[in-house]
Amino acid sequence: MGVIFFRRCFASLALLFTMIGALSSVCRAQQAIGTAYESGSAASPVWFTVSNGILAQVFYPSPEVSQSRELEFLVTDGSGFFSEQKNDVRSQVSFLNEGMTVHIQGQDKQGAYSFEQDIVSDPSAPVVRIKTTFHWNQPGLRAFVYFKPAMNGRVDETLAEATNTALFATSGILETPWSALVPNRPFLSASTTLGASGSVSSDPFATALNSSDSAAGPGEVLMSGELPVGEGEEFSVELALAYGVDQGQALKAAQSSLELPFDWVQQNYEAGWIGYLNQLEKNNAGLRFFGESTFARRSAQIIKMLEDKNQPGAIVPSLDGHAVVPHDLYSAAVALLSAGDHATPLDVLHYLEATQKTDGSWTETAATETAAQIAAYPILLTLHLKEQGGYSLKSADLEMARKAAIFIESQDPRAPGGFSPSPLAIEIAALRAMAVLVDDPAYAEVADSWQSRIERWTLAPSGKWGNNYYIPLSPQGTPETPAFLSSTDGEAPMLETSRVDGSFLDLVRYQVRQARDPRVVSTLEIYDSEALGLAQKDGRSDGFQYRRSPLENGFDHSPVQIAERGEYSIQAGQTGKARTELYLLEKTALDTGLLSQSVAQSGAQFEVRFEVACPSVRAHAEDILLHRGLEESHVFDVPRSEP
Q1: pTM higher than 0.90 for the full model?
Q2: Contact, 643 vs 59, CB < 8 A?
Q3: Which domains are present in the chain?
Q4: Rounded Cα distance, 212 and 190, in Å
Q5: CB 280 within 8 A of CB 44
Q6: Helix, strand, or coil here: 434?
Q7: pLDDT for 253-271, tens place per residue?
Q8: Whose CA is closest to 344, among 376, 307, 310, 381?
Q9: Rounded to the nearest 10 degrees, how much is the dihedral formed by the CA atoms of 123, 124, 126, 129?
C-alpha cells in the first residue's frame, strides 16, 4: 500500500498545480439503469447503468458523478478461446419485473458457455450487487472479472490496488471516494495495469493473463481478478462494488453487504420499487391509466431513479453526468404529480427555492433556453402544486415565485438570437400563473402586452411555406421583412421565414393561442408535411414520427416531439390522433421500456445512437402526461389562463 499511497500524494500535489486531465466520455447507449428506492434517507446513494450487455457506469454519491466505466467477465481456456462479455456474447437485457432488478441473459457466440446475471443495489449501503451463474458447455474454461474504474469521472487520474480480497480504486483528486470490488470467494489472482494512455496494451486478455502488478496509476487503470470456477458444469459468483470515503469504509461496505444473501437484498430492492408504484396507484384512485399502463408505471420509476438522494428534488435529465436542467426538472415534477406522487414534486419546489439566485433567476444550464424562460418553470410548478396537488403554499414558495416573476418582467422578451414562440408562450403563462397565485392582475397585464405582439414578432405573413405561419426564430422580430439567419453548421444562410419547427405548439400548450386558431392550423399543416423534413409518415399507422430539425443526418425520431404533437391533438379534440402518437412514442422505446432523447430508424427497428441521452427524463415525463391526458381529454399541465 506504500506505493499507491506515495502515488496518490504525488498526484494530489500535481493536480493542485496543474488541474489537467481528461474527463471520461459517455459513448454507449444505456439499456437499463438501477438504484434502490429510498424515501427520506440516502443510505444507498449509488446508481448503475447497463450498456452493451454489461454493467457500465456507476455513479456515486450523486447521479452527476460517474465512478466507473465498465465491469464485465472474460472467459478463456488460456490459449485459443477468448470470449469477452460485451463483444463476444449475444445478450438480452430486461427488468425482471416491476421490482426493477436488471437481468442479463447471455450466450457465447461460439456456444462455449451461457450465463444469467442479476444486478441490484443494496438499499442499506452504497453497494451494487451482481450475481452471475455460468453454464459451461466445454471443459477447461477460466473466468475473470475485468474492471475499468474512472474515479470522479476521470480516466487519466485513477490509482488502483489489486489483492485477492478486492480490487481497489481511487485517484489523486482531493476528496475522491474509494471503490472496492469484492467477490464472495477470493480471487485466485488479481492484477492491475495502465491502459491505452499508459505503457501496457489495453487488451483485456493481456491484462488478465499477463499482468502481475498489484498497483498502478495515476492513469487509465485496467483491473482483473481470476475467479475460482470449480470443476462442475455450473458456476456462480457474487460481486459487491462498494464506495466509501476511504479504502477501509469501501471494503467494509462491500463485505457487510456480501454477508447478506443476494436473494434477500434483491427482495428488499424490489419491495421498494413495487411499494412506490402501489402508493402512486393508491393516490391516483379513480384514474385507470396508471394501473393499466406498464409504460406509464415504468416511466414514473425511471424518473424517480434519476433523483439525487442527497438533494431531494434534484432530478437529472439522464444518467450521463449532466447537471439538473430546469425544463427537464419541471417536466419530471408535473409528470410525477400527475402519476400520484405528491412528495417528489414538492421536493423539486424546495430544491428550486434553495438554488434560486438573488436576482430571481437560476443558473443557466440549457443553451437553448433564456434565463427568463428558465425562471418561468418554477412559477408554473408552484401553481400546479397548489391547484392539482392540493398543497398549501408557504410564504417561501410565494416569495420564490414573486422574485422569479419580477426577473421575467425585467428581461427582454426576445430569445437568444431573436423572438421565438416557445419561450414567449412559457413566460406569458408564468406571469399569468403569478397573477393567479397572488390575485394580482398587474402580472397578467405584462403577459397580455407580450401576447398581443406574438404575431408581429413570430408570424410570417408570407414565405417559402405559404402564408401566415409561425417561425421558430426572428432575429429582429420583423418577419414581414425577413432577415437571413446565420449558420453555424456549414450550411448556407437562409431567410428566417424558411424555417418551421414544433416550437409553435407551446402557444397552444400554454393557452396563449387556441388549438383551432387559423394561424396555428396553417403552421401545423406545414409541420406535418413530409416536404419540410420534420415529419415522417409511419408505415403501420396513420400517424407521423417527428424530429427536431431537418438538418439532422438521417431521420432521428424524437419521442418528446411525438408526445408534444399528441398533446396538441388532445387539446384539439382529436383523441384518435393522440392515441396514435402515444403508440408511436412507445414504439421508440428499448425492450426494457427506456425512452431516449432520440432514436434512429434502421428498417423496422429503432436504435439509440451513441452519446444520446437514454433514458430521457423529458421523454418519460411526456409519456405519463400523454397517458393521463388521453384519459381525461385534457392535458394535465396546461396552466390556468385567468386570475
Answers
A1: yes
A2: no
A3: 2-14+31-257 (2.70.98.10)
A4: 8
A5: no
A6: helix
A7: 999 999 999 999 999 999 9
A8: 307
A9: -60
